[in-house]
Amino acid sequence: MAYEHILVETRGKVGIVTLNRPKALNALCAQLIEELGQALDGLEADETIGCIVLTGSEKAFAAGADIKEMAGKSFISAYLEDFITNGWERITTCRKPVIAAVAGYALGGGCEVAMMCDFILAADNARFGQPEINLGVIPGAGGTQRLTRAVGKAKAMEMCLTGRQMDAAEAERAGLVSRVVPLADLMDEAIKTAERIAEQSRPIALICKESVNAAFETTLAMGIMTERRLFHACFATDDQKEGMAAFVEKRQPNFKNS
Ligand code: HXC
């Protein structure tokens, strides 16, 4: 499918979605978000794909929601269209693992989209921030919630109240990103990591993602119970038999996604 603001490609079992609105530093206009949703629908439905990488350009992952598009909204228009529930949350309902490969600016909605992904790999030039306060609004796509869960109250509160940006090193120290790599290596590392995930048993990877995500939604006791039941469910798969047999026989497993 031809998109205007994103590029979609597949490499083996990995789907790559590139935000591609360079003149606006990948500002997330409504059409881009709609295209992103369609691309994710397609990659979810594609049985050959086991993991998705979402990236931007070297200068900007995304510099936020499109300010020019938002500027004229009223309370009633924002409320009635349910800005931004429609579309944006599609990333969070993706069942396949999604890696954000972030270089350059990930600001406002850009930082929020990165945090909707399962984990963030950052280039050494990445910058994260929630500068909405400078525009007279607050983060609206989960920034006050996901950033707080990721880096704790002190840093999240300071960033949301002042608009201060974190560089990649601070983001790694704070636990916002899983790893920082040199800018030149970002896509190779992201694709290599995605390939590794895509090589695992598909159902087990999905179950694993579901179980980690439970940690954000529930109490420790309920989360442990969720994990325990999902762990038990793994033993109903052929891939558990294959994975453990392969270990015992000192060979690589050949998962069948069953
Ligand atoms: C619309 C944007 C944009 C944005 C950049 N541009 N960010 N357009 N929405 N969020 C456009 C600029 O208008 C300009 O186009 C072009 O991209 C290049 O930007 P410059 O500012 O000239 O680049 P630079 O000097 O390098 O500065 C980069 C920057 C700055 C620091 C990232 O662009 C910036 O501060 N952008 C806004 C960041 C921000 O406030 N994000 C939060 C948005 S609110 P023209 O045509 O003018 O030259 C948000 C709310 C989310 O995200 C809530 C849920 C929806």
UniProtKB/TrEMBL annotation:
Entry keyword annotation includes Repeat: no
SUPFAM superfamilies referenced in this protein's UniProt entry, alphabetically: ClpP/crotonase
Keywords recorded for this protein, A-Z: Fatty acid metabolism, Lipid metabolism, Lyase
Signal peptide span: none
InterPro entries: ClpP/crotonase-like_dom_sf (IPR029045), Enoyl-CoA_hyd/isom_CS (IPR018376), Enoyl-CoA_hydra/iso (IPR001753), Enoyl-CoA_hydra_C (IPR014748)
Lineage: Bacteria, Pseudomonadati, Pseudomonadota, Alphaproteobacteria, Rhodospirillales
Matching NCBIfam families: PRK05862.1
MF terms (GO), sorted A to Z: enoyl-CoA hydratase activity
Cross-referenced PANTHER family: ENOYL-COA HYDRATASE, MITOCHONDRIAL, ENOYL-COA HYDRATASE-RELATED
Catalysed reaction, written as an equation: a (3S)-3-hydroxyacyl-CoA = a (2E)-enoyl-CoA + H2O; a 4-saturated-(3S)-3-hydroxyacyl-CoA = a (3E)-enoyl-CoA + H2O
Name the record gives this protein: enoyl-CoA hydratase
EC number: 4.2.1.17
Biological processes per GO annotation: fatty acid beta-oxidation
Physiological role: Could possibly oxidize fatty acids using specific components.
